[in-house]
Design brief:
Layout (H helix, E strand, L loop, with lengths): L1 H18 L9 E4 L6 H12 L4 E5 L8 E7 L2 E7 L5 E5 L14 E3 L3 E2 L6 E2 L5 E3 L3 H4 L11 E2 L1 E4 L2 E4 L9 H5 L2 H5 L8 E10 L2 H8 L5 H4 L13 E5 L2 E5 L18 H5 L2 E4 L3 E6 L5 E9 L6 E9 L6 H35 L4 E4 L4 H14 L13
Antiparallel strand pairs: 1-20, 2-12, 3-4, 3-6, 4-5, 5-10, 7-8, 8-9, 11-12, 13-19, 14-15, 15-16, 16-17, 17-18, 18-19
Length: 392
């Protein structure tokens, strides 16, 4: 079914390519400028978006062996993920049940057990408290009631999702709306992380707007990656998750070929966004690679941080190939830091200086329409009604 969906999208793309057209929204969208910097609204976004939605926090290949773990801080919540000996993943709030200290202080590693550096209380992969340092001196407590706080975690399409609310009942399949079946065509289970970097940026929505926007490519990036790139976009949606791609003349070569010969990798090349904070920019061709960007709100409404993961289907086999990959990653980092985010930082300062400022999304910017519309609905929706928002 997923290949059939890709072919349907490719045919839709080809029709627009030949006609010189794109899909358009019924009207222009106007977003109040203060939505990008108002502290009360920003806090609601943290609480009702980032702390309720499953967040894509890693690739399955980062947890290749039992005991492989990764720790991080996500919108103020310290957590860690570990591959259990049974093959499944576990995720926990990174806080000891003794005094609350962070148990895992390394960002990555492999461990059979986790011992808090403060007083050496020790936990296993199940999050159970299995040892108390000098327990006889400490006094009698029921260790079975003092385990780590587990978080919902799941793997789909060889990507890892964690929900920051331990009590969340939002089903991951409901949330994904079948989108993971399309993402599975990347085949990330055999890909490797080549390099990872973190970039500071503007308000998280200003930053995220750019990932769904091709309108700016030939202007803002005219001296870097925008050469000969189209500013037109076609959008496809699965609930809040979206794919954006330009009308692609190279797809027209398939008109004379049977569908069985259409390249899946070619049809996957575009930008795939996972609500509320991930962009996957896929690059087709010989040495397939992708930039997986994980965007997180920062310490204030005017800050964000983006983790750039440069992943490759096959790691470079020669020094020359490695140097080419390094240079491509440097270019992508530069484009985001010095062009996209530098522009965004100036944009938010300018918005704050204009009374009653609006941010306008044209009829050609459907990604922004859907994204901001879903955020708005999510802010108004209570936990019990969340599943009703996710319709394919």
């Amino acid at each position: 079914m997923t290949r059939a969906e890709l072919i349907t999208m490719a045919r839709h793309n080809m029709a627009h390519t030949k006609a010189g057209t794109i899909d358009q929204e019924p009207e222009v969208l106007r977003v109040p400028g203060h939505h990008y910097y108002d502290p009360e609204r920003w806090q609601r976004e943290l609480d009702r978006v980032f702390k309720r939605m499953p967040l894509m926090l890693g690739l399955s290949t980062e947890f290749a062996a039992p005991g492989d773990f990764k720790s991080m801080d996500v919108v103020g919540v310290p957590l860690f993920i570990v591959r259990h000996v049974d093959g499944d993943l576990r995720a926990y709030i990174n806080s000891c049940s003794h005094r609350g200290a962070q148990v895992v202080t390394e960002t990555r590693g492999n461990a059979k057990r986790f011992s808090c550096p403060y007083h050496a209380w020790t936990y296993d992969h199940d999050g159970d408290l299995v040892a108390i340092y000098r327990e006889g001196d400490f006094g009698s407590i029921d260790k079975s009631c003092k385990g780590l706080t587990a978080l919902p975690v799941v793997e789909r399409a060889n990507l890892v999702w964690v929900t920051l609310d331990p009590m969340s009942t939002l089903d991951i399949d409901t949330f994904l709306c079948g989108y993971d079946e399309l993402l599975a065509n990347f085949g990330f289970g055999s890909w490797q992380v080549f390099d990872t970097r973190t970039i500071d940026g503007p308000n998280w929505k200003i930053a995220y707007d750019g990932y769904m926007d091709l309108y700016h490519l030939s202007t803002l990036h005219k001296a870097t990656i925008g050469t000969n790139m189209s500013s037109q976009a076609l959008y496809y949606a699965w609930g809040p998750h979206q794919r954006v791609v330009s009308p692609d003349p190279s797809l027209l070569e398939y008109e004379s070929k049977p569908e069985s010969e259409w390249s899946t990798a070619h049809m996957m090349a575009s930008v795939w966004t996972i609500f509320p904070h991930v962009s996957i920019a896929g690059f087709g061709g010989g040495g397939r690679s992708a930039m997986i960007s994980q965007l997180f709100p920062g310490e204030t409404p005017l800050e964000s941080r983006t983790v750039q993961n440069y992943v490759m289907q096959e790691l470079p086999a020669t020094d020359e190939a490695k140097e080419q990959a390094v240079e491509q990653f440097k270019l992508l980092e530069y484009v985001v830091r010095e062009e996209d985010y530098a522009t965004g930082l100036r944009q938010q300062r300018a918005l704050m200086s204009r009374p009653n400022a609006e941010v306008i999304f044209g009829r050609n910017e459907g990604g922004g329409h859907r994204f901001h519309g879903f955020v708005e609905r999510l802010l108004q929706t209570e936990d019990a009604d969340l599943p009703s928002l996710f319709t394919k």
